[in-house]
Request: fold
Amino acid sequence: QVLYRKNAVAVVAKPPSVPVHASPYVGGTIKKIEEKPLLQRARDALGSRINLVHRLDRGASGCVLCVCIDRCREPQTLTSELHEALRVGRKRYVALVRGTGVFKGQSLGANHTWFDVERPIKDSRGKINDARTSFRFLGYANHLNSDRCSLVLAEPQRSGRWHQIKRHLNGLSHPIIGDSSHGNSQTNRFWREHRGLPAERILLHLARIQIPPTSACPEGIDVSCPLPSDFSKILASDTLTEITTSPIARQLFQEETSLYLPLSKALQVY
Reply:
């Protein structure tokens, strides 16, 4: 799905469990239609070769900003310009995490306010980089141990380190459901077997990107990507009726993402 398109700039919606490009990590070749990489899907949808300005993990979903190579004279320059604009802009993620928003006896969702986690992160080459992420806990469900979960908004601040959101949430003892790298394998298995979580899916969705004006987009960009059906069905299921009907949570979710939460019946608020 193409969410935004102007001249050589576009934003597309990445489906869950789809790699951004073919690589040895997904077998190197495309053997199944559901594994068709985003790079090829976007090329077909836009009618142009593309550069990806940023990436999402295979199991995640949401907005991906890209450049149409065949529609500009200097695609690499434009890609770099948009990458920098996105770095100083805003990327608003939605995540469903294990836990009820309490860490070391303190409520992470008190007054629904944003708070920052600042903790260095080691990249894939072993280099340590500063990293800061803002979080906002909206509500929680608290049934059985494996059902305990919270709906969270996350925004990396002027950085996009390797697995930054995953690692910072895991450091709060609230790993993202479906995260096989930093999450809880027992919880992930429960959600896959009993809550309909698709294979390879992590409940992390880039819901909105906002970038300041650039030469290619003088008015800037503000684009939202609706929650995919698998995420919406999980939130609206009868087993998670405490997550999405609080007027406060629904209002905050709409204000921060320009989207609506799927309806369920009752919510415990912080």
